[in-house]
Amino acid sequence: MKATKSYICDCRDAPPTFVRLGGLRMGRLGVSTVGTGLLYVEPQNFAALCGLCQYGSVHLDNSQTSALIQAFLAENAKLNLSAFRTEEHCRIGNIQDSLTILDHVKPEMIMRVADLGTGGGFPLLPLAMAMPHSTFVGIDSIDKKVQAVRRITAAVSLTNVTVLSGRIEEIAQRPDMRGTFDLVTARALAPLAVLLEYAMPLLKVGGTAAFWKSTKIADELASTAEAQKTLRCAYSHTFTYTLPGDWGDRCIVFFQKKADTPEAYPRKTGTPKSDPL
After folding, report:
1. Is cis: bond before 123, omega within 30 of 0?
2. Alpha carbons 19 and 47: distance in angstroms, whole number
3. 159, 182 in Cβ contact below 8 A?
4. Contact 135, 111 (CB under 8 A)
5. What is the pLDDT of residues 142-185, one digit of tens each?
6. Are 212 and 186 in contact (CB under 8 A)?
7. Sheet holding 135-140, edge to edge
8. 198, 266 in Cβ contact below 8 A?
9. Ranges of the chain with pLDDT below 50
């Protein structure tokens, strides 16, 4: 399937005249929100719209994003969770990048989300803020990161997030986890074939896996043929987007679970990575 491409803008600093723009005027600017609040702009209209707004997402208000940024930066100063050490970098590289998925899923249909290798809490925490009706589980094998994300979660008063310390291969075999999620996410964690073995056992049949990647994924995607067949899933599509400034192009690769995952998967700890399907 052909990849799609859009530009994303933020209205948090926009003048009131832009905030009040109706569907007709937004349509003339080539803007589509598709019910999520994210602004997807046709490339030829991006420059014009940037005269009214800057970057990010309108899905969270400024107080929410500011609270999350401050809590994250406080933990990051202590534990080196991420290379993003300024508010601006965190706002674009963590929060905005996390929320780009919302126009390619149906948030109202997603009750349970797992974020694999959650690290500093992205995309876990922005998505939990944007989807308060859903339950989120973050998983990471490094306990100090898990403890940090728990503190960030408490600092921003999120009540729909649980963070687990452990290996994905083991957690995916737990009866309370296996086959219970509508969406599984992972950002910059592992090759696609490895991610499929991590994610598919956790998903319900019909559920979606979404993996944040660089745009150079053709060979990596081609290498998933055996994993797709073995794990009973299928490639859906790739969404390519452009973050503002010098951040460049990114993409999210989507797969759908077609049938129950064989009980043998995921294999024992370390095997999916050392011996990918």
Report:
1. yes
2. 18
3. no
4. yes
5. 999 999 999 999 999 999 999 999 999 999 999 999 999 999 99
6. yes
7. 31-32, 39-41, 4-9, 233-243, 248-257, 203-213, 181-187, 112-116, 135-140, 161-165
8. yes
9. 1-59
